């Protein structure tokens, strides 16, 4: 499949006068086929609304230190139910088949074990836009930078409220596509209020990298928060709120029921479109 830059989805949304909505779901949950359906739902299939603009596909990992309890539960179940690293490429193809760009978000050890050059090749062949690498810093990313360049893949690194100006500058220089601004310190998860540190962090990043789109994540859980964050960020990143909807259906004994997921997708998509 043809690749598309993840930044294009963000800049297209910004051209409409709004932030882009970036949605995360792990491959393999509630099982591998079910995750393909859930990802297409995230993109707007059978949803009363347009769906997300860009998808992050998570790769479940056995030691997910940066994941909150919601994503950890889903990832653990996915591993127990047989997900494999190679399944992420089929997930990318599922997202691309409905016309949305797809990034993979992964702990670096999984890529390293697969083989950096091979992973980049297979991701590009599946139509993937690139990688979000939360535990990889540019200083230690020479192999990935080279493989991404060779395969035309986006490189999305993270900055946080604790990042120094020097760290922000070096990180944004290494990015291709956009930069992921974590709006709170700590693990991922939905929160009742968005972070007060986020606007300041975004302003610091803009001052140092004015041309690079900025996505803000970690904590957005509803349309009101999406509207709030979308007022100052180029993209609003949501993960746990979507995963929580799938967990609720699974816990209720009906893992194929995507009703709750559709509702969350519609709410958040409407949120980023509020003026």
Put the structure in a nutshell:
With 275 residues, this protein is an alpha/beta fold. The protein has helices spanning 6-15, 32-42, 69-80, 87-97, 108-114, 116-125, 142-151, 165-174, 197-208, 223-230, 240-251, 259-271, and strands at residues 20-26, 54-58, 102-105, 130-132, 154-156, 158-159, 179-182, 214-217, 235-238. The longest helix is centred in the last third of the chain and has 13 residues, at 259-271.
Q: Keywords, please?
A:
globular; alpha/beta; TIM Barrel; 275 residues; 9-stranded parallel sheet
Structural overview:
With 275 residues, the protein is α/β, with parallel strands linked by helices. The chain has one domain: TIM Barrel (Alpha-Beta Barrel), CATH 3.20.20.70. It is 46% helix and 13% strand. It is built from 12 helices and 9 strands. The chain has helices spanning 6-15, 32-42, 69-80, 87-97, 108-114, 116-125, 142-151, 165-174, 197-208, 223-230, 240-251, 259-271, and strands spanning 20-26, 54-58, 102-105, 130-132, 154-156, 158-159, 179-182, 214-217, 235-238. A 9-stranded parallel beta sheet has the order 5-4-3-2-1-9-8-7-6. Helix 9 links the parallel strand 7 (179-182) and strand 8 (214-217). Helix 2 runs parallel beside helix 4. The model is unreliable at 185-194 (pLDDT under 50).
Question: Which helices and strands, and how do they pair?
Answer:
Elements: H1 6-15, E1 20-26, H2 32-42, E2 54-58, H3 69-80, H4 87-97, E3 102-105, H5 108-114, H6 116-125, E4 130-132, H7 142-151, E5 154-156, E6 158-159, H8 165-174, E7 179-182, H9 197-208, E8 214-217, H10 223-230, E9 235-238, H11 240-251, H12 259-271
Parallel strand pairs: 1-2, 1-9, 2-3, 3-4, 4-5, 6-7, 7-8, 8-9
Helix pairs in contact: 2-4, 3-11, 6-7, 10-12, 11-12
